[in-house]
Amino acid sequence: MLEVKDLHVNYGGITALRGINLTIEENQIVTLIGANGAGKSSTLRTIMGLVPKSGGKVLYKGEDFTSLATKDIVARGIAMVPEGRRVFADLTVEENLILGAYTRSDQKAVASDMKSVYETFPRLKERSWQKAGTLSGGEQQMLAVGRALMVNPQILMMDEPSLGLAPLLVKDIFDIINLLRERGNTILLVEQNARKALEIADYAYVLETGELVLEGPGRTLLEDQRVQEAYLGVAR
User: Quick one: 9 and 33 in the same domain?
Assistant: First the structure.
């Protein structure tokens, strides 16, 4: 469904990604794990057209959209929940959700998806009139996910969705990720909680300093001694 081929990214004189190859199959959860600075977020941002590539291709359903603008990538059904939530603090919950659908013209479908988001996140429905900047961290994360869902995405990319959340809310976020997959979404997940990510992932990639060093089914990597020692806190 989505293929990343030999992707290279440079920030000035720094090489962020070195020949990354990824395949994301339809209706799967695929996760990227690795230490801070490994290139996980750079991968997502480059797929979305937010960071220029210095080499390689990104294919979606066989179409090369390497040179497409971000708004055109969104219009094709790919959305991202950014790290740090990035909600529009001075706008209401509902206004944030409406902005998520800015590429869509079918208002009946948009209204239906708004209803679906409120059913998925009843807390947002209760606070639809409230300014996003006054929400709790967990509520803002729900809003960031809901806003991305208003794109009506086939692929949803999530960058550190559990970062900074209390343990109970972390569980809620991963329950929501599973629910979205059950509803037909394909998920590309970057997550600092490697154990949780690998537990739910159909497939996983391990990044180190901009290079892929390991890949395989999530549960397989969960049992891999190298992954356990490096990312799961398991001593040799």
Answer: yes
